[in-house]
Specification:
The protein is of the alpha+beta class. It contains two helices and four strands; from the N terminus they run ββββαα. It has one domain. The model has no long low-confidence stretch (mean pLDDT 83).
């Protein structure tokens, strides 16, 4: 047991990474004694909080990747239906332009790359 009106339990990112926060408990009673069960509860709660934060971060990353893949798939599908080079280039620029507003988009061929041999 510890005698203190406050108790702190740090929590770390997944797999004992850097500390990302601290769970702080306090009471007005200066003689408050935190018993082992209360300390264990605070530590377990801090660990679960870190795990929940990590899960939320991973979910956000997965959602961003999925959205990016959907966008790429949609653009590829539209381009794949085209057979005329001019239409392919125009559609590519239009689709990227609507996905990334305010962005200048250009397609540049390397010298000799588009020539048939």
């Amino acid at each position: 047991m510890t005698t203190s009106p406050r108790m702190e339990s740090p929590f770390r990112s997944f797999c004992a990474g850097p500390q990302i926060g601290t769970l702080k408990l306090s009471t007005a009673d200066p003689n408050r004694q935190w018993d082992e069960d209360e300390i264990a509860l605070a530590q377990a709660t801090a660990e679960r909080t870190a795990l929940a934060i990590e899960n939320a971060r991973l979910l956000q990353e997965a959602q961003k990747r999925a959205a990016k893949e959907r966008t790429i798939s949609q653009i590829s599908e539209k381009i794949g239906r085209l057979v005329n080079l001019d239409n392919i280039l125009k559609t590519t620029i239009q689709e990227l332009g609507s996905t990334l507003p305010g962005t200048d988009i250009a397609i540049q061929f390397l010298s000799g790359q588009s020539e048939q041999k």
